[in-house]
Amino acid sequence: xxxxxxxxxxxxxxxxxxxxxxxxxxxxxxxxxxxxxxxxxxxxxxxxxxxxxxxxxxxxxxxxxxxxxxxxxxxxxxxxxxxxxxxxxxxxxxxxxxxxxxxxxxxxxxxxxxxxxxxxxxxxxxxxxxxxxxxxxxxxxxxxxxxxxxxxxxxxxxxxxxxxxxxxxxxxxxxxxxxxxxxxxxxxxxxxxxxxxxxxxxxxxxxxxxxxxxxxxxxxxxxxxxxxxxxxxxxxxxxxxxxxxxxxxxxxxxxxxxxxxxxxxxxxxxxxxxxxxxxxxxxxxxxxxxxxxxxxxxxxxxxxxxxxxxxxxxxxxxxxxxxxxxxxxxxxxxxxxxxxxxxxxxxxxxxxxxxxxxxxxxxxxxxxxxxxxxxxxxxxxxxxxxxxxxxxxxxxxxxxxxxxxxxxxxxxxxxxxxxxxxxxxxxxxxxxxxxxxxxxxxxxxxxxxxxxxxxxxxxxxxxxxxxxxxxxxxxxxxxxxxxxxxxxxxxxxxxxxxxxxxxxxxxxxxxxxxxxxxxxxxxxxxxxxxxxxxxxxxxxxxxxxxxxxxxxxxxxxxxxxxxxxxxxxxxxxxxxxxxxxxxxxxxxxxxxxxxxxxxxxxxxxxxxxxxxxxxxxxxxxxxxxxxxxxxxxxxxxxxxxxxxxxxxxxxxxxxxxxxxxxxxxxxxxxxxxxxxxxxxxxxxxxxxxxxxxxxxxxxxxxxxxxxxxxxxxxxxx
Length: 717
Description:
Oligomer: single chain
Strand content: under 5%
GO molecular function: phosphatidylinositol-4,5-bisphosphate binding
Function: Component of the exocyst complex.
Pfam family, one: Exo70_C
Region (Disordered): 1-81, 478-519
Number of helices: 23
Number of strands: 2
Helix content: 55-70%
Strand order of the largest sheet: 1-2
InterPro entries: Cullin_repeat-like_dom_sf, Exo70, Exo70_C
């Protein structure tokens, strides 16, 4: 069964020409537009219509009274009353009873009864007139008792045709059989047309709603280098609440028509009209959810920003289809075909198949688009949407209902699982490509000021965001990488990474893949640790691009602190990496800090040593002057350089400044207190003592701002 294009059933009613002419007249009237009238004129028109309606009702009552009077007069004169559908139906029922008894051999007779041709002819003519009344009138379908009367008459035509067909070899039955068969066909065309009209009315309303309620497209996903701004995964359920497609009275009419058509052997026509109308209604309702049907070729050509927005609306449409549309469709099928469970099940499964397959085409197209890192999260969103609806799908399409249609339709559950498998496969491949991206970043240009490297921001935020899909990624990695589990002796877990994974360049495999050390191998955690190890090794290589070893350690501190802070702020990634990993990185940070202190301030503090300043109890002034001079020059150089260095983390910046002040300021204050008196007041003091202790403290507070400033105004006066 093709599910891609909406179909329009061909109507074959013998009364279609009159109805088409009426519809064309209505269309012409609509094409003239709406004319706004004065309120007084409208009231006048309404009164005129009411008067005309009352006159017509009075005329009908008078005609009915005249017919009744004539029937009474004819009866009193011994004349046969005028035949009507009710009286003739009784005669037909009597004939059918005899015909059935003969056919079954219950009355012992083998000869078929004489056919009352005049009665049959009167009956079928009256049925034709009854249908013509509603075909050419304003009311599309009779209501109340008239509805039951017409359906009963059509049912008699069906039984009459079936009964006469048993004696098709009898020449005397040929004319009556052909006549009733023709009227039965006309009746079925009439019912088919009314069945279609009832179904179409709701579809027209749905199209009107969809055209006036377009969903606003979602903004494009943040670029990966801007991952500091957190965007949560798209997991919000559809806001569209299911509503009945048809009012109860329309459903009841559809049920009665379906029963009549199926009883007459026109089940194929009835099912085709229903299936096509409901499929077209489903497609017409998609735009109201913001999703327009697109081909695989269109998806492959689409820019990522546009495709990203389409995925968001697709997820909404998919969830709504499974949780609302398909469920409502099952209720409709069961109500309309309540007397025919097998037909109801078949129609429902056909609808579910077409609706799901149509939506899965888009998801399948996403799996074959060019893979790139930023697509991971939308791929996972689609995967989660499919995974989360499976309990609902299982409930709607239980396995025991699959057998009859298995040779005709592909099981929607199988299709969902197949596409979901390919999405998981794509997600694993995209995530594993991250290690290749880290390895490929071999830029030889150091980041100015030792700031956080863009690669650090990219990888850390990417991994942090990925870990918000922790459960899903663990699931897809176990599904697609289970065969690569390492042996129990392989503590590092390096074998868990395939061709896209790389090897974890730093060799730090502690706790890798053990989900925090609980002994349960976790391939996603192993991949995550591998990526972090590669990032660490890459940063250590980049730190060697700085000629100043102190700046090299500032760079490592900046990047290490950035990573540690992100990990500490994310319970998911912290859990996966494990406490052992976190303690190791914290220890690395402390070592970088010590290395920085040693490379910068240890040399400066050497100028404040007492060694060699006193000779035979006296202070050597030339050496003292040289010490002050060296200290001043060295501090100015450090201030000039390190005020342009960048430490963007306020806490780390404060820690560095405090630690420097705690080492330098007390040592300088002590040295100044002990030896400043040996310099002559005036020019010598101004020449060699350029800073006070508070000056140093203020100047140290200017370090790591990224803005080199002159210290002329800060010097001691």
